[in-house]
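Lecture 7 notes. Example A: sequence first, then its C-alpha cells.
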Amino acid sequence: MPSYAVQHPSLSQCLRHDEVICRPEDLREMTVIEWLPDRTRPPMVGPECTVVQAAASMARHCSALVAVVTREGRRTHLLGVITATRMTEYFTENT
C-alpha cells in the first residue's frame, strides 16, 4: 500500500485496486519487520498520564494507538496499549 494510506487509514478508501501492491500470497514470505510502516514506534506515555494527554499524543502523532510504558534506567517495559477505538468507546459511553 502507498505510505500515505498506511499513515492515514481513512485515505485507503480512495485507493484503486491496482495501487495495492501487496497481494495475500506475497505476505507468506514477508517478515514482520518488512511489513511494518517506516515509522515503527508508536507514541508512548507513562501510567500516570491522563486519558486526555494520551489522546493528544495519539492525535499529534497521527496514531491509532498509544503505548503505556514504564522506564527503569535504560529499559522500557510495555504495560499495554490504548487504541483509538477503545478511547472512542469510552468517551461515547461516558457522555
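Example B, a different protein, same format:
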Amino acid sequence: MADGSHRTVARRWPRGFGPGRVRGEMLVLGLAGALRQLLSDGIWGLTASTARAWLSRFPHRTALISATGVLTMISLGAAVAVTGRAD
C-alpha cells in the first residue's frame, strides 16, 4: 500500500478449522491416516496373497516356503536367547 498502512487479508477457514480450532484438524488428520493405513495394509495383503498363490502352485515351492519360515523362527529364537532382549 502506498500510504504505508498495512491491511491484513482475512482468511476464510472452513468450518471447524482455523486458529484455536484443533478438533476439526485432528479429525481430518486422523481420518487421513486411517485411510492411508487401510490402503497400505490392503495392498500388502493382496500382494502377499498373490505371491503365496503363485509360490504354492508347485509342491517343492511350498516346502521351500515352509523351510524358510522354520529357519526364520529358529533364528529369531536364537537371537533372543543369546541377547536376552526381544527387540
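Note on Example B: The radius of gyration is 27 Å. The chain has two domains: 15-55, 58-87.
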